[in-house]
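hi support,

uploading two proteins for the ticket. first:
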Amino acid sequence: MVITDILEQNAKQYPNDIALVELNPQETIKRPVTWKEYDLVPSIRNHKHRKEISWKIFDQKANRFANLLLHLGVKKGDRVAILLMNCLEWLPIYFGILKTGALAVPLNYRYTSEEIEYCYNFSDATILVFGSEFISRVEPLVAGRLPKLRQLLYVGEDCPTFADSYFFLTADCSTKSPKTELTPQDDAAIYYSSGTTGLPKAILHGHKALMSACITENKNHGQTKDDSFLCIPPLYHTGAKMHWFGSLIVGGKGVILRGVNPKWIMEAVSEEKITIVWLLVPWAQDILDAIDSGEIKLENYKLDQWRLMHIGAQPVPPSLIRRWKERFPAHLYDTNYGLSESSGPGCVNLGLQNIHKVGAIGKAGYGWQTKIVDENRNEVPRGGVGELAVKGDGVMKCYYKDEEATKAVLHNGWLLTGDMAMTDEDGFIYLVDRKKDVIITGGENIYPVQIENFLRSHNDIKDVAVIGAPHKRLGEIVLAIVELKEGRTVTEEALLDFCKVLPRYKCPKKILFDKVPRNPTGKIEKPALRKKYCCGDKSLIELQLEE
């Protein structure tokens, strides 16, 4: 079985049940949606900023797009790129590509024209599907900068002259499945890494990995047909989509929320009867701060059905979850760990029953193996720090067109994650830090996550990033960039005094107040902070330390 079989199975078993809902609190629908756009008016309801489609229509839309691609000459093994904000069309387009046997190539919606050009060309894509938000970034590429481009397909109103309308072209296509023969061993998608250490790497996944993500996510969190999953993160990334896969496999409803705002999240949970929400640390923090300030009053929302909140994509401060449980004592909680190279989250998870271990990322997820190894790939003793390695059906096939990088991380089915970790006496894994983020000061290894978690326990701090700043004598010193909660004030001296309980060599030597930049998947953009504060012949920090 491959993942497109699950969609077709849901369309047969639950044809009229809601499959997907799109909520866009930032705009009101100005006109009725025509049948040429959403196929069957009775199967879709428009109300203010809300759209929905059934499993039957979802499958039919995927089939229409698959048949259009085949008509345009797309063959098994070709690549089709997707450049869309989260929307109701995103997943039918993705599944339509898979149904042809072509590879889906989701692109980051933050990409500049140059980044779009690089990632599109590197993947060898021949068709680009894009939305209205990207017209100004795509138009400059039309004049010869995408040499393999055969077709530009536009999703939205007022199609630009340099593209063709997705809605118009799919309207008359067959709703029947193209019945392309697919196997678990076939290539399915190319995902790009976050690019936090340079140019993004192209990660090749097969259909086996996508099925693995469905099974692992469902086993880890126990989704049923009655669950409703709220999807907030960008669908181009493995995280959001692979969490939704746990609902796909049982025919549960998925709700796509366009935009991140504490009130919008709470309204969506209340109005759509959401039972499962996956959050990033900053979003959970914002919700709690909005409750504390009185901006959100929990009694105004229907939340009894909300059973599970889980977090991933970054280390989770235990203090945050303690606060969450104070406000939502009935919630189950889980931490999820994964990376794009492991087909998203779930290769390690805390487990719903292990909230007493908050701070750990957990143990091997369903169908996965883990170990912690030294530089020679030998397992380290329990309690020792080493690199986390994972093994399972969700491991990528390779870095596309990068044999050297592939050999560096794949060894006999084991994937080296680049994350430094350790296990406790019960076998729970704790992230220490990214291998490339370790600070070496005076010969001592310092792991920024430990200092970040400590600083986040301060009542006035909203977010924090710790990086190594160059220092002539010590090599590097600890620099903390602190983002305060709205309306709070605290001095650098007070925070340095707060840190005195840490071992002396771990204490920040300098604290700066600034916004902590994070990418759409919640990871701190430390290269941007290093460039801002630590570059040049003499870094800003060294100059300040000399004053």
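and the second one:
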Amino acid sequence: MPGIIQLLPDSIANQIAAGEVVQRPASALKELLENSIDAGADHIKVIIKDAGKSLVQVIDNGTGMNETDARMSLERHATSKIRKAEDLFSLRTMGFRGEAIASIAAVSQMEIKTRMEEQELGTAIEVAASEIVSQEPVSCSKGTSITVRNLFYNIPARRNFLKSNGVEMRHLVDEFQRIALANPQVGFELYQNDLETYNLPAGKLSQRIVGLFGNNYKEQLATCNEETEQISIKGYIGKPEFAKKTRGEQFFFVNNRFIKSSYLHHAVLNAYDGLLQAESHPFYVLNIEIDPSHVDVNVHPTKTEIKFEDERTVYGVVRAAIRQALGTHNFGPSIDFDQNVNFGKLQPMNIERTSARDRDYAQFKNVEKDPNLKHWETLYQEDIKQSRLNFDSEDPNTVTLESALNKPEEPSHDQGVSGATFQVHNQYIFSQVKSGVLVVDQEAAHERILFERYQSILKGGSGQTQQLLFPITIDLNPADHSMVMEIKQEMEAIGFAFEEFGRSGIVVNGAPVSLAAGQERTVFEGLLEQFKINKSQLTISTKENLSRAMAKRSCIKPGQVLHQEEMSAMIDELFACETPNFAPDGRSTYFVLDLNRIKDFFN
């Protein structure tokens, strides 16, 4: 009986290996850039066409390869980095040149041109799906040029899974930025469809950050330096007031290799505690130098997730480094030495206490308020006035408590709402109904209302836009800018009006009429952040994602005081929704506390 286990042909084995290394054009770019860095290049040029689907070309002035090495680089498991097993645990270089090139060549049409400095002629090799088409001497510059054309041309199913050009270009820019930040001593150029996107001369890290993200970063950078016997941390952090609602400008490197670590990100946020607005994310570029033997880089195939031998120590050093940088640059909260921290003033009982969040946002209290919201303050004033009248009556021991029996009966609402409506802790709306008490979560209910409203707008109509008296300029990183321009039509449909400004900025000229004055920037940035979160966690259409994100970021939040008419209107609109029971994320919007259940509390 013949055996059933067979060795795979090299062409198929290479395609399987490529599945681990090359997932999209950005994966190929990352491997080629890392190889150029390891080859000692001090200038690298990247040319992209059709978001990398048609062309990814990386040209460097590194050491180059001789004829034999160029041919060997196309073989599986060929590398210049490892001679014995122990070398795996002491690597400080990036990729394995042979392994990456072999994997990319298995799923593309590749051309390699390379020459070492001491050679007169270089070598040119053409490869298609791992098959060498030609190899010949060629006159070329010192270094290596690798051209990758028609990625996944021989695997149509993989090519069909690639995203739109905007999405794929965003991934390419992300990888380019990470390599450029990790290697400021190397000059970089990036061209998209023959247009220059970046031209970054070699220099200091601060210059590289400004070159990548814009001149406005000059005023927000603070140096961060911390050295211990085992770990050193160097880089820059952003001032708290420049923190953004969107993620994407947080970079951790370990021995100059980019990593993702929610654990270390938590250490940074912990150090910023009390200095950031809610849901804001500070900018940082931090490189951790540590003995490679104390790090396991093989946790994830792309090596973006690693494991430290002593995670707690690294966490503590990162947090201490950030706190020291914040303290050195006087970013800590100011202290009022005249205030008695042990005995605070008692607030009148009928006035709402200011929450900690309100205190954090005290600097925004002078922003001009929407005229439609003035009746909230009137409601407060009426409550205070009525309280004073009650206590100033002829009999000082008499307090008048109004009864519902003395009030005219409220008009009945739909869905059985038949009694007075009031707010509890500025978070829940209570309303008497025939069967008991209706309890509404104001945030979840409003989010459901807005979600269906934006869904309706995106399906057929267009949202109304309020032109801004003073347009708002928002600086975005290139990845976010690409995403915004990709969904520009949908965002304009819900009421935003904006245009490109500079390399990666936009100018917002109008916003949906439903937004309160002064909230346009906050909602816009929050919308982008929520859109990215939804995209990473949910498989939904762009329109539904945008509707969810807009509803989530513009809905009423707990702590917001509502007028009687606003509460009644919210209940009416909620029960007019197609799905009134749940918010878009599945949270309940309301429940009915029936009389029998209330009665049970007293038995």
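thanks. also noticed: The first helix runs from residue 10 to 21.
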